[in-house]
Amino acid sequence: MTAPYDALIAHTRETVALMQADEMLGWDQETMMPPRGAAMRAEQAAALATAIHARATDPRVGDWLERIDAAALPGPAQRNVALVRRSYRRATRLPQGLGAALARATAAGVAAWAAARKAQDAALLAPALTAIVALKRDEAQALAEPGQAPYDALLDDYEPGMSAATLLPMLEALRAPLSGLRAAIAARPAPPRLTGHYPAAAQLALARQVAQVFGYALDAGRIDLAAHPFCAGQGGDVRITTRVDEADPLNCLLSTIHETGHAVYNQTMPEDTLYEPIGTHASMGVHESQSRMMENQIARSRTFAEFLQPLLARHFPDAAPADPQALHAAMNRVETGFIRTEADEVHYNLHVILRTRLESALIDGSLAVADLEEAWNSAFHADFGVAVPTPAQGVLQDIHWPKGLFGYFPTYALGNIYAAELFAALRADLPDLDARLARGEMSGVLDWLAARIHRPANTLPPAELIARAVGHAPTAAPLVAYLREKFGALYGLDAAQ
Amino acid sequence: MTAPYDALIAHTRETVALMQADEMLGWDQETMMPPRGAAMRAEQAAALATAIHARATDPRVGDWLERIDAAALPGPAQRNVALVRRSYRRATRLPQGLGAALARATAAGVAAWAAARKAQDAALLAPALTAIVALKRDEAQALAEPGQAPYDALLDDYEPGMSAATLLPMLEALRAPLSGLRAAIAARPAPPRLTGHYPAAAQLALARQVAQVFGYALDAGRIDLAAHPFCAGQGGDVRITTRVDEADPLNCLLSTIHETGHAVYNQTMPEDTLYEPIGTHASMGVHESQSRMMENQIARSRTFAEFLQPLLARHFPDAAPADPQALHAAMNRVETGFIRTEADEVHYNLHVILRTRLESALIDGSLAVADLEEAWNSAFHADFGVAVPTPAQGVLQDIHWPKGLFGYFPTYALGNIYAAELFAALRADLPDLDARLARGEMSGVLDWLAARIHRPANTLPPAELIARAVGHAPTAAPLVAYLREKFGALYGLDAAQ
What we know:
homodimer; Neurolysin, domain 3; 3-stranded mixed sheet; zinc (chains A, B); protease (chains A, B); EC 3.4.17.19 (chains A, B)
């Protein structure tokens, strides 16, 4: 009776191993590969993608799925079957040729995007983006379950089970409070930045030390430099990258802590299911919640500055912040800007909300690409209080849409919402949390996350995983409360803001 | 008419890309992978091996091969077809289950080898090795063409077209002269070693500089540390590893030059056939000839010491050899030892010849595993003039046989034979070769090798490739002449030795 299940899992294990191999080669490409290796690496990645796709759509998978008596299986095995069924259905539903058409359209999209940025003319991207949106709508229609809206079918790739009906009101509940907080802070003087020279070697030594404080096991990982920080791998081999700006030690430090949040999640998943669908991360939003909580709720907290400032003083004797409060203030400087990737905690979600509203309208057809720039600029002015000066600082700033990524942006905001929910629940469970953080003592936090998020991995749908961890369906309220409290104290705002 | 050929090549290209991916992950495993990543990497490698094997034995390959009208194709395409036909025949001839049985037997063999070394008792390896030899004979019989001897079928994996009938007399012609040279040198005082402290950073800087002198393009490669130096990759991404002993700068330097010989071959193969059977190296022996010529005929020559000694003086101001002659003498110290991997040029081939004679006898059935140690010890005494003191310094020193590698050892000696042949031909074509080497000017050498070896890649069988490059079928004579000349001069021997 379990024979088709065993065959299915054996097949899946090997597919997952190929995906891991692909991920490691992706890491290599960003960190180690010599410049002239790019063309060959592209061939290798394409061959792996073909092999993985062939396995994922292998008709034997459909056959095993039909023959499995799921009701007779234990719970985790049932969830494995449901997850394989879902990905098999999605992989086999895509019409012949759509993948190739999307690959061509997004290659053209990325080229048009670069040209449009250079010319500061969003109209140059419009034809390519119109084609991409049309193909993504085709994809969404092919993937959609009966009754599922096209945008929801795309969301499902990154945040399984999420829908615009749940997502948009949650983001909307965030928008007005954040916009108000932003305006109140803008009226106050900004605290000083850190200034001085922070040698790269000392920054990397500090990064290694702090990553270990946050639970990163270096015998199952490594830290290298890359243009864009990222995390790759699972289980016994989870690698992170960071970057160094010798004028700003917080860049390397906070990037490293962010990626450590991802890495510790991947290192803590149960070893015995690392190759099964239940053994991976629950969703992109849940993954991002782990990095954001480490970076924002913990590393940028007033209490953690008590632990961190002496470390900086040791590593940078000539240029450390004078005291924990100065460090905390510098780590939480708020400044209105136009670029999402440079945004502070107050502005960041406003960026994401704007993009989510626009991309869901593009996919559901209520917004045309021709009207996108105007819609962007008007929404930006409403939420940020300033006018977008150039397209590169506005609608042309991100590569996501030209690359065909729709439904990805909201996972950043979901990560922040989940992080605030989880941190509030964690605080309720660990009354001495602040005292622990002031000592840099992370074991209680890590045990709590391991039990509720890391070790359950993908055994539950993400919404249920978070709801079980915090005791209710997640809302934006804890995030709003957290931001008001921290920035209210720092900027001397009254509680109503 | 060419449609099945195009399909075959497209299929092969993707298989080769997967093999390259596997090779890069192998590099990562030895250089970058964190310790706890080993188990997952083994799964990834196994999944890739399965995918590669499935592609190599895909029945469509047999179908395309049947439908191709080879006579209508141009020469290089005909050679591609012949090479795919050969590997398809070999891959599909292996009986079901033999691969798995060999994997199990060699895993047990490696464990038994380690235990036998620890206990200094070769008898502990005998049962596992007996099983391995039996399976390798099964494999050889399955692979053998009509009339081909089993050992030749194994040789063919590493040196296509080579046979014991050609190989053993060639090695035998080497044995007596080498043994005589060894005895004559042993009667003379050995020149002094280099002594002093050679900082690792300076050794690596020198290695990078010298690798580039030997033609290594660092924008298509990189140099890292690993326990055992090796070379991995092709075309735009060819990586080498080296090692550092701070008491001995020649270890890192000569390892690097050796691997650079491999790397430059791989970097110089034509870009447009990198994924085709004709676009890879001709054989293991030919590959080894490139590394050996760079390391021995060039780097260890008296004239190159003129270029190298000032470099050492610059990188190691406190511990450089006094003059080029002192460097040359230290680089060519001859000492009787028991371990192949530590052997000098005079002893090295004697080690290989001994193993080749024994392993061919094991496979053709004229030697039983039970009699192997005695056969080793008696042959060693005859060739080296000393008795083997312990099994770990004798029959248990190499991991090759416990790993199931039979037919591999002779490629080391073939590499030396080919290197001497090629270098003699190169010298005849470049009358000012010594003056060039004394200046560290390698372009003429590299152009010559590119035209005759690197760019032809695998368009010709290895024996024909070498014969065309040097004008006759290769023999051991140039190697004997080269060794007698160099060591005769260095040790003051008369010409008859």
